[in-house]
Write a structure and sequence with these properties.
The structure holds two protein chains of two kinds. Chain A is mainly alpha-helical. In chain A, about 40% of the residues lie in helices and about 5% in strands. In chain A, strands 2-3 form a two-stranded antiparallel ribbon. In chain A, α2 runs antiparallel to α5. The radius of gyration of chain A is 19 Å and the shape is flat. The relative contact order of chain B is 0.14. Chain B is built from seven helices and nine strands, in the order βββαββααβαααββαβ. In chain B, a hairpin with a 6-residue loop joins β7 and β8. In chain B, α4 crosses α6 and α5 packs antiparallel against α6. Classes of the chains: A mainly alpha, B alpha+beta. At the A-B interface, β1, α1, β2, α3 and α4 of A face α1, β4, β5, α2 and β6 of B.
Chain lengths: ~140, ~260
């Protein structure tokens, strides 16, 4: 049965069978079935994060960063640093990305780098968990 | 229960249930454990079953690992067949509440969605611009941006704060137009292979779009191929992050529930 779900990887696309923390947060806090009246685990830090996710794009901060990006372009000899630069940029989720946006920054401050995803660490539990409790909504 | 501080509820011998998802009545609970390492089991009616685990007494602290546990339980369930995923954090007072208020209360919707989603999976695709490549495209296509950029070249940064904001805003508008074009191109290839699609807003300034597709398992191979072809065609300017198959998070809902 499981074999029907496994496919060979593609050459041009970063593919994974299940999401890392970044993607899981994106999906399971926002989507899926929910019954409002039932006790819901409330996650203080994580709720904040989902709010952050909606305020990113139109800001002075973004404009200045875009202006810088377009100013930085080398017009002549445009291909000179093409490939290595591209390869670097391909590690999109890398924590050293130079043009990291507000959201990713916020995510990192809450959860650590999105890189060290998977099972997470017990130590993070106190951060998101210490002040959480169930509340009815 | 103790978890609800200050509650005047008398302690009754019932265990709260954390709910992961809904499966057909004939399905089994996935192997392994769930949140707080409790055993997974099902609560069932003759029409549907809920995958649940007991919630330990006391305050339930949840952290990032619990988010992953929730997701992984559902992915294991999907290996056995259709599952309607619950959002993270639904805790019901006891098995009876699960049976009566979830399974029976919504039985028509649940059964309909179990049928509708049988044999289908969700795939996520997030397309992200390579910054240099998209900036170069924008510069080449917009003389006004090129002109303003040239005017700023030899000026000290602190003397041109507002000019830079204006320039950046023009660039942001150009990025917005590029997003529309690229999103349409991606959907043009993938929509014909999908049963349904859901397009979310970008969560980062370099993101083109976040897309969820509901796809027949039988068509997974051709969908993979189409995604790969998009990746090939956009090499150097777009990078794609492709995830799945996942339970159909984006294509389930209960009437009147959730925002």
């Amino acid at each position: 049965m499981a074999s029907t779900l496994q496919r060979p990887g593609g050459a041009y696309v970063q593919r994974s069978s299940s999401g890392g923390l970044y993607e899981v947060i994106d999906v399971i806090l926002d989507k899926g079935l929910v019954i409002d009246v039932f006790l819901r685990v409330s996650l203080v830090g994580i709720e904040l994060l989902t709010v952050d996710a909606r305020i990113v794009i139109a800001s002075v901060d973004t404009y200045l960063r875009f202006a810088e990006a377009v100013n930085r372009l080398e017009l002549n000899g445009s291909q000179s640093e093409g490939l290595p630069q591209l390869m670097e940029d391909l590690t999109e989720d890398g924590s050293e990305n130079k043009t990291k946006g507000i959201l990713e920054g916020a995510k990192e401050s809450l959860f650590g780098s999105s890189e060290d995803d998977d099972e997470g660490s017990r130590s993070s539990k106190s951060r998101a968990g210490a002040s959480s409790r169930r509340s009815s909504r | 229960m103790a978890a609800v501080r200050g509650s005047d509820r008398v302690s009754v011998k019932t265990k709260e249930q954390y709910v992961y998802g809904i499966v057909p009545a004939s399905a089994k609970a996935p192997s392994g454990t769930g949140i707080a390492r409790r055993r997974l089991h099902t609560v069932r009616t003759h029409e549907a079953a809920a995958i649940v685990s007991d919630v330990p007494e006391g305050e339930l602290a949840v952290g990032r690992e619990d988010l992953m546990v929730h997701a992984r339980v559902l992915e294991r369930a999907l290996q056995d067949g259709v599952v309607l995923p619950m959002r993270f954090g639904v805790v019901m007072s006891d098995e009876r509440a699960v049976r009566e208020q979830l399974l029976e209360g919504f039985h028509r919707d649940l059964v309909a969605q179990l049928e509708e989603l049988d044999g289908k999976v969700e795939l996520h695709l997030r397309a992200v611009y390579d910054e240099e490549a998209v900036m170069r495209e924008i510069l080449e296509a917009n003389p006004e941006i090129a002109r303003r950029r040239a005017a700023l070249q030899d000026q000290p940064a602190d003397a041109t704060y507002f000019e830079r904001i204006d320039l950046g805003q023009l660039v942001a508008e150009a990025v917005e137009r590029a997003r529309d074009v690229d999103t349409a191109a991606i959907l043009g290839e993938l929509e014909p292979l999908s049963v349904a699609i859901d397009v979310g807003s970008p969560d980062h300034e370099r993101v083109v779009a976040r897309m969820s597709f509901l796809v027949e398992r039988d068509r997974l191979a051709s969908f993979d191929q189409a995604v790969d072809e998009l990746g090939r065609r956009n090499e150097g300017r777009l990078q794609f992050k492709y995830t799945g198959p996942l339970p159909a998070y984006s294509f389930v809902d209960l009437p009147g529930q959730g925002e």
